[in-house]
Amino acid sequence: MYDFNYHRPKKLDEAATTLSSAEDGKLVAGGMTLIPTLKQRLAQPSDLVDLAELSELAGISVDGDTIIIGSMTRHCDVSASADVAESIPALASLASHIGDSQVRHRGTIGGSIANNDPAADYPAGALGLGATIVTSKRKSTADEFFTGLFETVLEEDEIITSIEFPKPKRAAYMKFPNPASRYAMVGVMVAETADGVRVAVTGAGDDGVFRVTAMEEALDANFASDAIADITVSDAELMSDIHASAEYRAHLISIMAKRAVEAAS
Ligand SMILES: Cc1cc2nc3c(=O)[nH]c(=O)nc-3n(C[C@H](O)[C@H](O)[C@H](O)COP(=O)(O)OP(=O)(O)OC[C@H]3O[C@@H](n4cnc5c(N)ncnc54)[C@H](O)[C@@H]3O)c2cc1C
Fold first, then answer.
1. Which residue, by CA, sits nearest to atom 6 of ligand 1?
2. Whose alpha carbon is nearest atom 12 of ligand 1?
3. Ligand 1 pocket test: which of 55, 97, 98 has the largest number of ligand atoms within 8 Å of its C-beta?
């Protein structure tokens, strides 16, 4: 690990000012991804701004048909929330299958969304459920927010404050986990929302999380697993690595999507 200045602000505006005035500042939330990166000397920030004391960023609230989850809310708290379980059980289930108990007790939804790991679960949850990402500067729809592998619209000095999830009519998330890390080899969120069906896939895309419009159109016409039985995703733009080939991931997308439709039904 290289040397850095450590800051532990108590308020959001203090965190934002510290971050923007640092030479090369970096936020730390749960540290599940960032700390190993620093330990391996893969990053050398001048300043670390720890969000741990910003209680205003943690917690879950309900506003009509919207669940609002603070960015510092840990995965274990999302999975255990009665409000999330009642309004969006698919999201509670997604959170409960992230990593292991230690990861779920440290990792935060904001850190996961900001990191946009191509195998992480929340990007598919946010994109599939049509969430809105709220930051210290603006609001972005999930469709706008995720821009590529580990890439988002976030600027260097922008802090995610919460994620707003509209309650779907029905939804389910199915993942085929890597047996070692539990990251998604493929994870599919299927949601019937007020604006139609959304199908979002993580773990497979060469360019990160993506939607499958052919499946969405078929499910809009008939919300049944049979409706997508013949729809396949081309393996041309899917990842191939030591865990699975692109062809295998394409097959998994069809299977996980059908299982998600059945679970949501
Ligand atoms: C062994 C292991 C297994 C895992 N398995 C899974 C899994 O199955 N599924 C899954 O989805 N994830 C998995 N994860 C990832 C984990 O869930 C964390 O969510 C993820 O590492 C990032 O969250 P964090 O709070 O730890 O963020 P950090 O590591 O603290 O930060 C990650 C990045 O996000 C930035 N950041 C953090 N908070 C904010 C914010 N509020 N605004 C803007 N930027 C911010 C940081 O600057 C950093 O660049 C696993 C991790 C480990 C170590």
1. 99
2. 120
3. 98
**Structure tokens of 123?**
């990007």
The arithmetic mean of pLDDT across residues 97-117, rounded, is: 97
Dump pLDDT digits (tens) for 34-64. 999 999 999 999 999 999 999 999 999 999 9
Place of tokens 């943690």: 58
Mean pLDDT of the chain: 97
CATH of domain 170-264: 3.30.390.50
Instruction: From the options 3.10.310.50, 3.40.50.620, 3.30.460.10, 3.30.43.10, give the CATH code of 1-54.
Output: 3.30.43.10
C-alpha to C-alpha distances, 118 to 3, 35, 45, 191, nearest whole angstrom: 29, 19, 23, 20
* 123 C-beta closer than 6 A to ligand 1: no
Query: Which pLDDT belongs to residue 148?
Result: 96
Enter the pTM of the model: 0.97
| b/e code 104-134 from CB counts within 10 Å (16+ = b) | bebbbbbbbbbbbbbbbbbbbbbbbbbbbbb
